[in-house]
Amino acid sequence: MQINRVFEYYDHKNLEKTLMELKNKYEFLEIGSLGKSIFGKSIPRITLGNGKKNVIYIGAHHGMEWITSALLMQFVHDLCEEYQNGRSVFDVSTHVLFETRKIHIVPMLNPDGIDYAIHGVNEDNVIYNRLIRMNGSTDFSHWQANARGIDLNHNYNSGFEEYKIIERKENIICGATKYSGEYPESEPETRALCNFVRFERPSLALTLHTQGEEIYYTSGEKTSDISLSLAKTLSRLTGYKISFPSGTAKYGGFTDWFIEEFDKPSFTLECGHGENPLPFSDFEKIYSHIKRALFITPILV
Ligand SMILES: [Zn+2]
Question: What local confidence, expressed as pLDDT, does residue 1 receive?
Fold first, then answer.
């Protein structure tokens, strides 16, 4: 059974609806909230398993990458289903997995940005005129930032000062993409995630973006042998190639912040191939490539 098949897209409303359905079906599913977005939408967090070691999966930093939320929710559904039925997946016993690991999933870090990208912006939005100016048109399908034009994946405390110099040089300002904000963690979405991560201290982080069928495992400055060997495993499991961040992608991202802050492995998975936003019709193909990695990653640490 697949969830979300009826959806042609995956917005915050569909996410909440799916979460309620899953909660009714699987009572062991723990659902919480990291906090709220700028416009007060809950940023849900799902936790599965009771083990000591924990990992975190994060989706949808970026508005037009909403398909990553659906991918993580499909994983939540599949893991719950296999655990409830006492089955093993890819030779991993789901019971052993639940006993020894804890998997935190944040399927939609940027609910406002996702809703802009999918539905556009209503005239009753309190910053409507400003948003139209920032975006340059009423077509928000390529919007990446949060509700007020900060790119969440440049808002972390990693290379932030260096990135400010690039921003000034390239005239990157508040808008659809790439603007880092006034200071690290200035946005409620990034602050909520960082606080959660500082408290839980996961052994590994995996962040889903689109697109490129690539895996990043280093900030360019910092990495470790274990990270490289895990990246190779992820590459084998997904068929995605290992890549290195370049240009603006090198600064202010979650993966790099996590590596520098905790000295633990952290990966960016650029899911799928094509032009963003990837259509929902790509969902099954992408999921078939990354499913094995989602199931196996928790036992790699
Ligand atoms: Zn992205």
Answer: 45
87 C-alpha to center of ligand 1: Å? 33
**Number of domains the chain is built from:** 1
20 CA → ligand 1 middle, Å: 27
Cβ atoms of 159 and 256 within 8 Å: the answer is: yes
Burial class for 299, CB neighbours closer than 10 Å (0-12, 13-18, 19+) = middle
> Tokens 């409620």 map to which residue?
188
With contact defined as beta carbons under 8 Å apart, do 189 and 152 qualify?
yes
CA of 209 to the centre of ligand 1 (A): 4
Distance 88 CA to ligand 1 centre (A): 32
Question: Residue 133 is part of a domain; what is its CATH number?
Answer: 3.40.630.10
- The residue ranges of DSSP E strands in 49-124, in sequence order, are 53-58, 88-89, 92-93, 101-106
Q: Is residue 134 part of a domain?
A: yes
CA distances from 247 to 144, 178, 214 (A): 17, 11, 16
* pTM of the full structure: 0.96
Domain presence at residue 3? no
Encoded tokens for 280:
């929902």
What is the distance in A from the centroid of ligand 1 to the CA of 300? Answer: 25
Q: Does residue 5 belong to any structural domain of this protein?
A: no
- Inform me whether the pLDDT recorded for 251 exceeds 90: no
Q: Is residue 148 part of a domain?
A: yes
Range of the domain at 150: 12-262+272-300
Question: Distance, CA 282 to ligand 1 centroid (Å)?
Answer: 17
> Per-residue confidence at 7, pLDDT binned at 50, 70, 90?
low
Q: Check if the beta carbon of residue 107 is closer than 8 Å to that of residue 73.
A: yes
